[in-house]
């Protein structure tokens, strides 16, 4: 258990500590992209990710999850190399296309690998704790990325790319030599072909109403949170903050997110879905109000969204994993991620249009309202469903 957790922590930490991760949106802002162009760059990432999301996970379920993650790191490294030669508009799109492929390979695969390795040693009850450690590595790595960016930005973007490539290479070496994948024992009724795995994954999401309900909450909140996260630095610059100041502020916030992740696992492990839903709804209201009245400081209203997203990840995601068979674990998770990506793409393009006509801040307010309404509707859907089914257990 220690080996797989340590490996996943270091692999995630180093790939997230790439300086280009923290300041990518600043690159676009300074290269004079229009808001709609920036929206298309981010949308190209999600469109590509959606195209490769399920196929890559079927390969991971059918053959090797370790192999898929190794390929993902290599693709992410390739996405950074393009900036060694040019920072033209097409380079940003090409970078995001490759990054989308890389993230699609990661998505669902790492979580499936972790869950099954723990299950193999009869430690699946520790999945939530291990997931928290994995997400803490994400936070700490991003904090390092932001702090490095604040320092390296003085030397130009070229040196940032070089540091990013080195960080990815360390991540690759850690995973190749540290990750272990136990050969999974196939059950008689397990799917074997690509088509069978695809069908089982899709049926799990559609017919397992517990998974569907939890996935809807995760998709609605996660997509909006991700949209805000991707343009938060741009909005900060739009509001007049300096790049180095932004990097440090966001860096300290990601460290705080790592601490929150640990606290959530310790104190909120058994929080009910209804309570989480109420927290998410409250955060949407606060974010919208803050964006309207806080002026230059309004960007800080995005932070509670990120904190609440950790609560969602630590409580809802393990519940989803508990409902999925090992034979299609990565595939089912990727179906959820694909729906998340489709929602993200639509919201990002809407935000780009609003920002072109007015500002990103106004777009935040409108999208927060959309998220609030959708979560209310999903809550009503759950209430109706629970009344008609006695088998659904969400506590």
Helices and strands, with pairings:
Blueprint: H1 2-16, H2 19-30, H3 35-62, H4 65-81, H5 89-106, H6 109-120, H7 127-152, H8 157-178, H9 194-207, H10 209-238, H11 243-267, H12 273-293, H13 303-322, H14 329-357, H15 360-388
Write up this protein.
- With 395 residues, the chain is mainly alpha-helical.
- It contains 15 helices and no strands.
- It has a single domain (2-179, 200-388), classed as MFS general substrate transporter like domains (Growth Hormone, Chain: A), CATH 1.20.1250.
- Helix 1 (2-16) packs antiparallel against helix 8, helix 3 runs antiparallel to helix 4 (65-81) and helix 6 (109-120) packs antiparallel against helix 14 (329-357).
Summary keywords:
single chain; 0% strand; mainly alpha; 395 residues; Growth Hormone, Chain: A
Structural class: mainly alpha
CATH topology (level 3) name: Growth Hormone, Chain: A
Question: What is the CATH H-level superfamily?
Answer: MFS general substrate transporter like domains
What is the CATH first-level class name?
A: Mainly Alpha
Concise structural overview:
With 395 residues, the chain is mainly alpha-helical. 81% of the residues lie in helices and 0% in strands.
